[in-house]
Amino acid sequence: MRPNLILHVVAKFVIPLIILFALYVQFHGDFGPGGGFQAGVIFSAAFILYSLVFGLDRAEKIIPARWLRILAALGVVIYAGVGIESMILGGNYLDYSLLGSNQIAGQHLGILLVELGVGITVAAAMLILFFTFAGRGRS
Amino acid sequence: MGNQISLLLVVIPLIAAPIAAVLPRGRLPWLLACVVASVCAILAGVQLWNVLNEGTISYELGGWQPPWGIEYRIDALNAFVALIVAVIAAITLPYALLSAEQEIPEEKIPLFYSALLLCLTGLLGITQTGDIFNVFVFLEISSLASYALISLGKDRKAFTAAYQYLIMGTIGATFYLIGVGLIYSETGSLNMQDVANILPSVLHFRTVETGFAFIMIGIALKLALFPLHLWLPNAYTYAPSAVTVFLAATATKVAVYVMLRILFMLFPQGFAMTTPAEELFIVSGIAGIIIASVYAIYQSNIKRLLAYSSVAQVGYMVLGIGFASVAGVTASLIHLFNHALMKGALFMAIGAIIYRIGACRMEQIHGLGKAMPWTFGAIVVGGLSLIGVPGTAGFVSKWYLVSAAIEQQAWISVAVILFGSLLAVVYVGKLIEALYFKPVSDTGKAVREAPMLLLVPMYSLVFANLYFGLDTDLTVGVAQQAAAILGGIGQ
């Protein structure tokens, strides 16, 4: 890929900000607009920008395809696991109230974990989609 | 703890699916899927037992009370359908091992089992939930997984078939969702029980009637009701053998369940009578039985032959729904169960033939019956059951369907059901003629009987066909109880 100085500098400046914003949307999602799905998409946008500017090979070195599949699976397991945990604690599936010392703390922790699972899976799935299409035609 | 079963049925395959996807290649993903499906089958059995003894089970997800939270509501009807789905999954998965190893590229095997488990999650979810929007979510989970499963077929046409199903399935699901949206806008609720309570007061608003029409057409697409069946023959023909077995025996059945639930429980008594829905069901049921059976006779691909026969069998089920009587719905439910048994056995036998000779065209199977006597035996029993010969499960469902038609004095329907059986004699006969009476084509090498791992699941379904043809306590008893629950049925 032909190096383009302006793109490289701007991308290096913007990518951390995009990731930071993704984390904000992720962890502030229970107080304001946002949540796991949106955060996952924004997070993956940072990596997609990186691979557009620096090339697919370097992007795949940062995050190998095998890891993406594991991460995509991990998110679902976190989500379903939170539900199972509240069943083990004696409640119904996904009853967050039992997860903390009191109801409010429990609800807060529950939604945070569930959204984290959603975020991980969405980010990984978006990157799998991107790499699959971008990698077409290579060996 | 008893209540938790209704949820575990959905969550166990859900949590196993991502784990299967990351397991190393080899037989580990298969083993996991097998164990999960067997556990689900046992749980579904316990659930049906609980429901029959203790009455309806209600489960509040996340501790949120219905109608605000999502409620799983299990009665005899959905416990029965969930049992069918789970048991078929538990029988199909042992069968899947060898045929998947042969038909699917090795690196995709973990993903194959993952998708199969997701499909199971979706189908069980549809049966368990008591929330009409949640039905849509699970419908999409199972459909997306089945598009992926179908596209794994060996033939490149599997891609086209999966794409065709994707388009038709998405239209169906979208129509369902539009209908749910319209009903929500009038009732302000998504909980089935709650909607059923509110609907009588807003029943003849145009919005509700439009919503009803959207939902019915959406589900009709999903259950491959003639003439909306065009996706089905290709999808069943080109999917991997194990996927065809699983989908043929479960996916359309679950769609029939959703239709029953919406038609007779969500909407109040007699509503369906005031719309053209009943006539449409009877007309398309009759057309489906005759036209799809005739199509089946002319197929040269044996998998496609059975796929067209499935469209015809859906016609019988919808015909039963069309009578809108307890007897009609009972017949539909019995046929739903029995058809899962017979098509499961038949597609398993075809899968065994494909496993041995790698092809399924009429001229390539000549004389195979002598080389593969057990597989041939399964096709004969399955075929007889499909025709409806006394002593097989198929006879029981035809019997109840004809009785329901006579009760309605629907003489045309009676004639069509019997004529449909005659057409089944022709296409099953064609299959048996090719397998047994045609001389062996001398080009091929010697063919051996299918391995045990394919024969045992196949024969468990074959014996089920014979058993449920003689002992109808479970099928008829539960089906009658389930039909009685649907309050919207006219007398």
Could you give a quick summary of the protein structure above?
The complex is a heterodimer of chains A (139) and B (491). In chain A, 76% of the residues lie in helices and 0% in strands.
Number of strands of chain B: 2
Tally of alpha and pi helices of chain A: 5
Of all protein chain pairs, which has the greatest interface, and how many residues does each chain bring to it? A-B, 20 and 15 residues
Low-confidence segments of chain A: none
Strand content of chain B: under 5%
Shape of chain A, please? elongated
Main sheet of chain B? Answer: 2 strands, antiparallel
Task: State the separation between the terminal residues of chain B, measured CA to CA.
Answer: 38 Å
Radius of gyration of chain B: 21 Å
User: Strand order within the widest sheet of chain B?
Assistant: 1-2
**Measured distance between first and last alpha carbons of chain A:** 18 Å
Question: Element order, helices and strands of chain B?
Answer: HHEEHHHHHHHHHHHHHHHHHH
The computed structural class of chain A is mainly alpha
Give the quaternary arrangement of the chains: heterodimer
User: Beta fraction of the residues of chain A?
Assistant: under 5%
Task: Describe the model.
The complex is a heterodimer of chains A (139) and B (491). With 139 residues, chain A is mostly helical. Chain A contains five helices and no strands. Chain A has helices spanning 5-27, 36-54, 56-62, 65-88, 103-134. In chain A, helix 2 (36-54) packs across helix 3, helix 2 (36-54) packs parallel to helix 5 and helix 4 packs antiparallel against helix 5 (103-134). Chain B has a domain at 269-491. The A-B interface holds A 69-70, 72-77, 80-81, 83-84, 87, 91-97 and B 4, 7, 11, 14-15, 17-19, 21-22, 59-63.
